[in-house]
Amino acid sequence: MSSEPAGGQIITTTPSATIMASSQLAGSSTPSTTTTTSTTVAAEIVGSTVAGIKETMKTLITTPTARTTTTTSMATPSTTTISSVSSTAAISSSLANDPTKQSVADLSSSLQHFGIVDYCVFVLMLIICAAIGFYFGFIEKKQKKKGQKGSATEQRRGSEALDYLVGGRKMKVFPVSLSLVASFVSGISLLGTSTEIYVYGTQYAFILITLALSGVISWYVFLPVFCNLQLTSTYEYFEMRFGKGIRLFGSILFSLGTITWLPIVIYVPALAFNQVTGVNIHIITPVVCMVCIFYTCVGGLKAVVWTDVIQTVIMVGAIIFVIVKGTIDVGGLGVVWERNVATGRIEIPELTWDPTSRVSMLSILVGTTLWYTQVNCGNQVIVQRYLSVPSLKEAKVACIYFTVGIIIINVLTMYNGLLIFANYHDCDPLSTQLAKAKDQMVPLMVMETLKSLPGMAGLFVAGVFSAALSSLSTGLNSLAAVFLEDYIKPFKKTPLTERQTAWIMRLTVVIIGIISVALVLVIQFLGHAVIQLSTTLASVTGGPLLSLFLMGLLMPWINSKSAISGCIVAFVTMTWICIKCQIALATGELVYPEKPFSTEGCTYDFEPKMTPANATIIDTSSKTFAQYIYQMSFFFYAAVGCFISVAVAHLASCAFGRNDPATMNRQLFPPFVRKFIKSKEYQSVFDKEDEDETLVMVYDMQIKSDLKQSLKDDEVL
């Protein structure tokens, strides 16, 4: 029987019968603020359905059957419910014993089918990636040395690191833009975004607004400073603005988050491949990772960027193909829209001030805007690609292409979520347990849509691996930059030779790559704990890191002691909030409402999921202040961490004093802040750049004045 919660109450369970909380979406290829459930589920996604569906969809019996209806009760924004099945165990048992229909167990037993064409598609993707690395690591490098032999410019100190980490700052805009998209999108987010829409509706779609806003912020605030300073490591800025200590602090936070995130990125497609083909995970993981380590190690950023281009094409092509064919099969756009509207999936975020509302307009506009600002503007993985183009002008063009690209991919994956529901509107695979977890819906839909086309299973797995490899390669290359520029050069008394630099960067890629492969084996046994560590670190570090950049760029009066004080307080506070949130999710204290599902049209036997008998009732009308804090929407994490850090830094400035902006390097601030400082009280003499800008303005004003006078003379005549 379904359980309808009373007003102001939610259904949950005791710790002995914990109900897994609903997944929170992974946002990016970089570490994101997600719950552990979403990422754990993503690792099981692809494999448990990819191949089996291809065979079993052909064997489903289509004769009329007894119908079992599954309904998830809809809740108001202030309440939280758990999906329940409105059918009895007796009905389920009778269905399971019907000899005329295939059971879910029979469908599962038909897994692990991967044809020759599928293997060829997958292997071809790996060969192309390795060939690109070989070209840039050996052929192109040899040609470059031969053509520029004896050139003083090429022999200058630092050219090896410049070429390896930022492509000599000569990369083209379009491939860099696609690499930015590939860096932002991971296999987890490709699967998670569609699942978010399927389970919770279109509220999340409003992040498209914040993606555009973060692009504008990057354009006006971050890029002018980073490009003019010609940085290699993003965290070099912290030393210029605050000192070595804060630079090291920022680099460590980035390194910890990335190193714990990379094995998760590898584990998702590796487990999928294992479940589809039967190939042991200990074999496929080292093989695929060695290919990635090879082209990243020998080819540097150029190889990473161009493999990202190929991998982005594979990802996007697979999504578009599935969407077009799936829409045709289901009956067109009108059918997709009608079926989603009928179940309340088309909706806007809640207009509420309640911080515990999962998706509100406030959490979207404030929380996700600041989160994506941190991901897109203050992350080494992204900023390093911006710095690989020749000038600020090209970086801004790449920013536009990147923003448009990630918006398009998000639109495609969000529509795919609506399409999945339109396809399964009367037979929810989650309720029948054909899909063992929420994020398994995407590969299920893919294999049903493309089951008649040979090689599509291989294309889908190649697409997921492409997303993973792009994330792994960009992560390794960025860590090489951070290790060289932040951990070694600042503490080396004598400059490194070109040979030493080359060895350090390549050894870093190899060592971190091997560590990532080793951690994949750990995740097999302690996966939930490792994933929780990674996602918690992302939530804990995102806000403080963003605050350091904002205080550095926009608040010249904040000094290093005040800034580090704010960061430490924010770090500790966000650690407490994230740990308490994870406990609430694990114990069922915090559960988010889902949209309704049905199994009315199922044509196979299944055992419906039942709400545990020991579910208890918790009154939500008397939440404590602490509960409002740690049960806040995960969208607020970056914003809260940032606000706490900035507020504490300003209070600490009363004790540690303030900077005099007049004595600071004006190139550390964006142009509009420089003008503010100059026009007030801090500086009366223009620097060279401002002087040139002023002369241009005066010249333009003179031209306009002459033109107006000419027009007046014409009127007189």
From TrEMBL:
InterPro entries, sorted: Na/Glc_symporter_sf, Na/solute_symporter, Sodium:Solute_Symporter_SSF
Chief subcellular location: membrane
Entry annotated with the keyword Nuclease: no
Gene3D superfamilies reported for this sequence: Sodium/glucose cotransporter
Keywords: Cell membrane, Ion transport, Membrane, Sodium, Sodium transport, Transmembrane, Transmembrane helix, Transport
Superkingdom as given in the UniProt entry: Eukaryota
Intracellular or extracellular location(s): Cell membrane
Membrane topology according to the record: Multi-pass membrane protein
Residues annotated as transmembrane: 116-139, 173-192, 204-227, 248-273, 279-301, 313-337, 357-377, 398-422, 457-483, 503-523, 529-551, 563-585, 634-656
Pfam family, one: SSF
Family: Belongs to the sodium:solute symporter (SSF) (TC 2.A.21) family.
Protein name: Sodium-coupled monocarboxylate transporter 1 isoform X1
Taxonomic classification: Eukaryota, Metazoa, Ecdysozoa, Arthropoda, Hexapoda
Gene symbol of the encoding locus: LOC101895390
